[in-house]
Write a structure and sequence with these properties.
Strand order of the largest sheet: 5-4-1-6-7-8
CATH class of the largest domain: Alpha Beta
Helix content: 40-55%
Shape: globular
CATH topology of the largest domain: Rossmann fold
Structural class: alpha/beta
Distance between the termini: 6 Å
Order of helices and strands: EEHHHHEHEHEHEHEHE
Number of helices: 9
Number of strands: 8
Length: 218
């Protein structure tokens, strides 16, 4: 029986692509790069802020990442101020969270977004007491697809992998869940395709957040 659901953040809980585009475009603009499209950013994101900046620079022609340190510093400063720029929950997510809490299911977040901004986004969108565990990118914790973040959450909850469901929208998320041995569900309302999620061996792929409820008694 599932006793906990771990959510990815960007592309799963929050429709946040415009915030990352806003900050990313401005971070690389001093080097004559960008702006890039939202579709491009859907593939820049997912593996942490540093990789987002690297992918934007490469797309802009800086294949040797000569400008990385300065652009990354720009991005971190911008994102600290604008991480909520036009960010909103996906349709059906608030209803899913409410239904899970009513069933006594622990709800958690595991994101490659920096931890402070992860907390800020979650608490702004959903309130300070909604989630049982919020875990963003922190020094000393390997980013996804490492399963370390899932292990840390399970340890805090004092639960086993078989009691947990992981929901995310990218291959990185599916690899994270698979690596930790949890039931892994792909979200089709996010940033990537069904093909990507299925190739990453998602245990299930769903069209709407409330479909998560069908897995609770399996």
């Amino acid at each position: 029986m599932i006793k906990a659901v771990i959510f990815d953040l960007d592309g799963t809980l929050s429709d946040s692509i415009r915030s990352m585009k806003y900050c990313g475009d401005r971070a690389v603009a001093p080097f004559g790069m960008g702006p890039f499209t939202e579709e491009q950013y859907k593939y820049f994101v997912g593996d942490g802020a540093a990789n987002l900046v690297k992918r934007a620079l490469i797309a802009g022609g800086d294949v040797r990442l000569v400008h990385f340190q300065e652009a990354f510093a720009n991005y971190k400063k911008l994102f600290g101020a604008y991480c909520m720029y036009e960010v909103k929950p996906y349709e059906g997510v608030p209803e899913l969270l409410k239904a899970l809490k009513e069933r006594g299911i622990a709800i958690c977040v595991l994101s490659n977004k920096p931890h402070a901004e992860t907390v800020k986004v979650i608490e702004t969108l959903f309130g300070k007491e909604t989630f049982d565990v919020i875990q963003g990118q922190q020094e000393g914790l390997a980013i996804k697809p490492s399963p370390e973040g899932v292990y840390r959450i399970l340890e805090r909850l004092e639960m086993e992998a078989k009691e947990c469901l992981y929901l995310g929208d990218t291959a990185t998320d599916m690899k994270t869940g698979k690596g930790a041995g949890v039931f892994t569900v792909g979200a089709l309302w996010g940033f990537r395709t069904r093909e990507e999620l299925e190739e990453a061996r998602a245990d299930a792929v769903i069209m709407h957040p409330l479909e998560v409820l069908t897995f609770l008694e399996q």
